[in-house]
C-alpha cells in the first residue's frame, strides 16, 4: 500500500483482527472455489482435497498480514474489495464454464 | 517497511507467542518423540507379548477363520515382518457414533490360532503408551483426541502461524545484520534473543509446514462440510466421490477363497517398485466391497501417512482397486497431497529424516521455551547502580513459574510414564489408565511446585527431577538385564532408546547445573535469582513470588 509518510499507522487491534479472521476466511473459501474451477479434469476426491488444503494458508496469510494496513477501516475496505473481486471472478468463470 | 510496522508486529508476536508458547512446547516435545513411535512401542512391549513370525502364507487359515466371524466394518490387521507374518490378527470395534479420531473409545481385539487350529479371540486392552504420547502432541497436552480438543489445537496452531509471520516481520529489517550473529557475552538477553532468532529462521520452513498442516488436521471436517455446501453442491459427501471399491451385486464371499498374503504382497510390489509391505488390513471381507489394504513404506517414494501408504486390492480377484495412497505409484496430484502429510509426519527419506525431525522438534520446543523466557526478561525492571532493588511485576513472576512448571513437568512426566512401561505389565490391569495417570501426576505436581516455590527456586530441582525420570528409562532396561526376575526386561534391539534417554538426561543435567549457577549468582533483579526471592519472602512471607 502506498503510505504517506506523515500519516501514522493505527494498530486498530479489534477491527483489523476481525477483518483478517472473517474476510480472510471468506476470501480463502472463494480462492478454493476458484481453484476448483481450474481442476475440472481431476476426480473430485483429489481436487476436493487440494481445495481444502488451500483454505488455511490463504486464511492465515491474510490474517497475519492484516496489521500492515494503515487502519482498520482500510483493512475492511481492501479485503471487502478483494472478496468482491474474487467472488465476481468465480461467478464469471462459472458463467463462462456453463456457456 | 516502516518502524511502526515493526512495532505493531512486535506486539502481535508477543501476544500470539505468549498465548500459544507452552501448549506448543508440549506439542513439539511429545511430537519429537512420536517420530520414533515404532522403536518406542518395541521398547515398551514385554517380550511375553511378542509372537514369533511365521512364513506369511501360514497365516492364511487364521485370516480365513477370523474374517468369517469379525464384524464387516472392522479393519483386521495382519502385521508383516519381511517375508514373514506375525500370526496374530488385531482389530478395533468402535462404539457407534464415537469420534473416529478418538482411539481410546475403541475396544481392541486380537485373534490367534490355538492348539489344534481353533480360533482364539481375546479382548486385549493395549498399553497405548505411544498412542498417549502421540495424543499429547496432537491436542497440546490434553488427554483425549476429541473434536473440541482438536479445535483448541487448531486455535493454538493458528496463533502459532501468526506468531511465525510476525516474528519474521520483526526480524527482517535487521536480518542481514543479526543472522550470523550470536553475541555471547555479558548481555544474556541479547544472546538468548540471537539464539531464538537463528533457530526460528533456520527452521522456519519446518514450522510453517507444521503450523498450516496442524490447522488442517484440526478443521478439515468443517472446511470440507462448508466447501461441500458452497462449492461442490453436495457431491463431496456422496459416497461415489471418495475412493472406494467397485460397487455391484454382493456375491456371498467365503474368506477361504481369498488370495494368499504372499500373492497380495506380490501385487502391491509389482504396482510400485521398491514398496516394502508391513501389514495387511482386511475390510468387508464378507461384505459387498471386500478390500485389503497392503500397507507399507517405499524408500523411493513419499508416504501419505505416518505408517506409510497402501495399495487397495480386491482380496478375491487380486484387482488393484486404488493406488491413490500407494507410495511410489501415485499420480502427481495425489503425491502433492501426500507430501503435506509426509512433511508433517516425517514419512519420507528414511531414518536420517526421522532423526532430523526429532532434532527439529526439540529445537522447536526450545524455541517456545526461549520465547517465554524473553517475554519475562523484557519486562524485568533493572536495578540502577547503587539504587534500591526495584519491585518486579507479578505477571512476569507468574509467567516464569508457569513456563518452568509446564515445560519441565511435561519432560519429566513423559520420561517417567515411559520408564513405567517396563514395570506395569503383569502388575496392573488397565495399563493405559496408569500411563495417563503417571504423566498427569508428575506434570501437575511440577506445575504446582513451580508456582509454590517461584521460578528461581523451582527450576533447578525440577530439572534434576527430569534428569532422574529420564534416567529411569535406561535404568529400567539395565535392571531388567541384571535381574530378569524383577519384571522388567532388556532388549538389545532397542538399545538406541536407552542411549537417547541417557543423552537427554545428560543435557537436562547440564541445564540444571547452569540454572542453579544463575539462581545462586546471577543478577538479583531477575526472576531467576533465588537471593532476590529469599529477601522478598523475608519481607513478605505469604507469597513466594515477587509482588
TrEMBL record, chain A:
<keyword id="KW-0812">Transmembrane</keyword>
<protein>
    <recommendedName>
        <fullName>Transmembrane protein</fullName>
    </recommendedName>
</protein>
<feature type="transmembrane region" description="Helical">
    <location>
        <begin position="75"/>
        <end position="93"/>
    </location>
</feature>
<keyword id="KW-1133">Transmembrane helix</keyword>
<keyword id="KW-0472">Membrane</keyword>
<feature type="transmembrane region" description="Helical">
    <location>
        <begin position="18"/>
        <end position="38"/>
    </location>
</feature>
<feature type="transmembrane region" description="Helical">
    <location>
        <begin position="50"/>
        <end position="69"/>
    </location>
</feature>
Amino acid at each position: 500500500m502506498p503510505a504517506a509518510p506523515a500519516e501514522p499507522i493505527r494498530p486498530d487491534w479489534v477491527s483489523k483482527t476481525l477483518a483478517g479472521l472473517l474476510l480472510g476466511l471468506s476470501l480463502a473459501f472463494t480462492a478454493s472455489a476458484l481453484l476448483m474451477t481450474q481442476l475440472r479434469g481431476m476426480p473430485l476426491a483429489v481436487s476436493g482435497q487440494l481445495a481444502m488444503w488451500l483454505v488455511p494458508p490463504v486464511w492465515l496469510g491474510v490474517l497475519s498480514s492484516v496489521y500492515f494496513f494503515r487502519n482498520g477501516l482500510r483493512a475492511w475496505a481492501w479485503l471487502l474489495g478483494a472478496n468482491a473481486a474474487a467472488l465476481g471472478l468465480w461467478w464469471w468463470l462459472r458463467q463462462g464454464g456453463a456457456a | 517497511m516502516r518502524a511502526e510496522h515493526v512495532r505493531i508486529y512486535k506486539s502481535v508476536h508477543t501476544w500470539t507467542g505468549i498465548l500459544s508458547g507452552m501448549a506448543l512446547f508440549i506439542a513439539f516435545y511429545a511430537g519429537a518423540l512420536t517420530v520414533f513411535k515404532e522403536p518406542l512401542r518395541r521398547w515398551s512391549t514385554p517380550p511375553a507379548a511378542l509372537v514369533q513370525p511365521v512364513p506369511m502364507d501360514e497365516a492364511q487359515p487364521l485370516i480365513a477363520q477370523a474374517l468369517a466371524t469379525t464384524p464387516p466394518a472392522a479393519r483386521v490387521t495382519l502385521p508383516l515382518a519381511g517375508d514373514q507374518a506375525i500370526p496374530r490378527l488385531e482389530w478395533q470395534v468402535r462404539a457407534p457414533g464415537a469420534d473416529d479420531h478418538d482411539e481410546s473409545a475403541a475396544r481392541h481385539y486380537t485373534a490367534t490360532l490355538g492348539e489344534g487350529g481353533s480360533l482364539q479371540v481375546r479382548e486385549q486392552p493395549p498399553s497405548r503408551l505411544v498412542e498417549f504420547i502421540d495424543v499429547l502432541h496432537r491436542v497440546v497436552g490434553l488427554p483425549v483426541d476429541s473434536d473440541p480438543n482438536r479445535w483448541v489445537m487448531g486455535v493454538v496452531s493458528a496463533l502459532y502461524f501468526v506468531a511465525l509471520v510476525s516474528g519474521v516481520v520483526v526480524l527482517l529489517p535487521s536480518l542481514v545484520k543479526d543472522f550470523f550473529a550470536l553475541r555471547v557475552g555479558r548481555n544474556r538477553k541479547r544472546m538468548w534473543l540471537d539464539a531464538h532468532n537463528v533457530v526460528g529462521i533456520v527452521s522456519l520452513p519446518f514450522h510453517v509446514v507444521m503450523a498450516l498442516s496442524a490447522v488442517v488436521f484440526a478443521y478439515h471436517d468443517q472446511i470440507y462440510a462448508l466447501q461441500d455446501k458452497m462449492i461442490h453442491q453436495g457431491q463431496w459427501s456422496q459416497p461415489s466421490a471418495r475412493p472406494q471399491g467397485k460397487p455391484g451385486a454382493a456375491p456371498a464371499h467365503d474368506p477361504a477363497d481369498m488370495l494368499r498374503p504372499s500373492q497380495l504382497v506380490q501385487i502391491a510390489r509389482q504396482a510400485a517398485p521398491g514398496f516394502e509391505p508391513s501389514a495387511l488390513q482386511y475390510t468387508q471381507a464378507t461384505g459387498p466391497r471386500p478390500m485389503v489394504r497392503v500397507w507399507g513404506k517405499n524408500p523411493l517414494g513419499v508416504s501419505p501417512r505416518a505408517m506409510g501408504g497402501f495399495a487397495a486390492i480386491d482380496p478375491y480377484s487380486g484387482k488393484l482397486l486404488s493406488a491413490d495412497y500407494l507410495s511410489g505409484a501415485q499420480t502427481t496430484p495425489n503425491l502433492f497431497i501426500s507430501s503435506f502429510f509426509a512433511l508433517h509426519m516425517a514419512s519420507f527419506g528414511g531414518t536420517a529424516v526421522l532423526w532430523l525431525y526429532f532434532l527439529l522438534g526439540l529445537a522447536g520446543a526450545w524455541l517456545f521455551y526461549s520465547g517465554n523466557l524473553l517475554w519475562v526478561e523484557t519486562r524485568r525492571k533493572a536495578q540502577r547502580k547503587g539504587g534500591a532493588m526495584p519491585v518486579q511485576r507479578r505477571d512476569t513472576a507468574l509467567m516464569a513459574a508457569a513456563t518452568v512448571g509446564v515445560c519441565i513437568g511435561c519432560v519429566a512426566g513423559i520420561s517417567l510414564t515411559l520408564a513405567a512401561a517396563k514395570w506395569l505389565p503383569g502388575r496392573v490391569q488397565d495399563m493405559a489408565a496408569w500411563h495417563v495417570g503417571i504423566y498427569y501426576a508428575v506434570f501437575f505436581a511440577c506445575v504446582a511446585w513451580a508456582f509454590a516455590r517461584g521460578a528461581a527456586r523451582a527450576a533447578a530441582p525440577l530439572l534434576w527431577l527430569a534428569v532422574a525420570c529420564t534416567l529411569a528409562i535406561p535404568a529400567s532396561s539395565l535392571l531388567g538385564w541384571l535381574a530378569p526376575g524383577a519384571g522388567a526386561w532388556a532388549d538389545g534391539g532397542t538399545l538406541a532408546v536407552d542411549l537417547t534417554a541417557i543423552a537427554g538426561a545428560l543435557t537436562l543435567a547440564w541445564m540444571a547445573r547452569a540454572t542453579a549457577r544463575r539462581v545462586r549468582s546471577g543478577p538479583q533483579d531477575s526472576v531467576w535469582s533465588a537471593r532476590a526471592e529469599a529477601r522478598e519472602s523475608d519481607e513478605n512471607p505469604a507469597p513466594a513470588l515477587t509482588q
